[in-house]
Specification:
This protein is of the alpha/beta class. It has a single domain, classed as Rossmann fold (3-Layer(aba) Sandwich). It contains 8 helices and 6 strands, in the order βαβαβαβαβαβααα. The protein has a 6-stranded parallel β-sheet, with helices on both faces. Strand 4, helix 4 and strand 5 form a beta-alpha-beta unit. Helix 2 runs antiparallel to helix 8.
Length: 207
């Protein structure tokens, strides 16, 4: 369990609103060095803020309740509940929270599985930090955004898969596009309602 020092916002603090409200990011990944590196990169970008980290899906659910992030970065491979199953549960519990899946897998099959799970974005861990920041700054519930390094392969797979051909794709993102962070729409962070809070506590007991 991470210490409270990993959280930059007090429990149940009211989110900042207005045109300059930052994109609040929670990182859920059991790889501590990766989380630390991404956290530092996000904090260095205007309009973005890493509000905390978690090392498992169950801890991530709890942090969503405590920190009300705008975007959750979710690793696919974690002990306990895997990232794809956790994404599905989190989208059900807090539909206003975007989930950006990060993975060492870059083939279209995994991207498709993330889309089916309800992910708002898919980012390869092999990509650059600037690419990750660009995708995260634009991630929001809706059509899944895919990192620019994966766009060609993903677009080709959609053409050959009739079940996905009619789905509206997200606009392609350019690597390192810092302007996206400045233009991101004003978003009120998701507040988990009491009924959803009970569901999260059930998941914590199970996970």
């Amino acid at each position: 369990m991470l210490s409270n020092n990993d959280d930059r916002t007090p429990q149940n603090a009211a989110p900042t609103t207005g045109p300059t409200a930052p994109v609040r990011v929670l990182i859920v990944d059991d790889n501590a060095p990766f989380s630390s590196l991404l956290s530092a990169a996000l904090d260095a970008v205007d309009g973005m803020e890493c509000v905390g980290t978690a090392r498992s899906a169950s801890e991530g659910f709890q942090r969503v309740v405590e920190l009300a992030p705008t975007v959750v970065v979710m690793d696919i491979m974690m002990p306990g509940l895997d990232g794809l199953a956790a994404t599905t549960e989190l989208r059900r519990l807090s539909p206003e929270t975007a989930v950006a899946v990060v993975s060492a897998h870059s083939d279209p099959e995994w991207i498709a599985r993330a889309e089916d799970a309800g992910a708002s974005a898919y980012i390869p861990k092999s990509g650059s930090l600037s690419e990750m920041v660009a995708v995260l700054s634009a991630a929001r519930p809706g059509p899944m955004a895919v990192a620019s390094s994966l766009q060609a392969a993903w677009s080709s797979s959609r053409v050959t898969d009739p079940t996905r051909a009619d789905r509206q794709p997200a606009s392609p993102l350019q690597s390192g596009d810092q302007q996206v962070a400045r233009d991101v729409r004003s978003t009120k962070a998701a507040i988990v309602q009491p009924g959803r809070r009970r569901d999260i506590l059930r998941l914590l007991r199970r996970g």
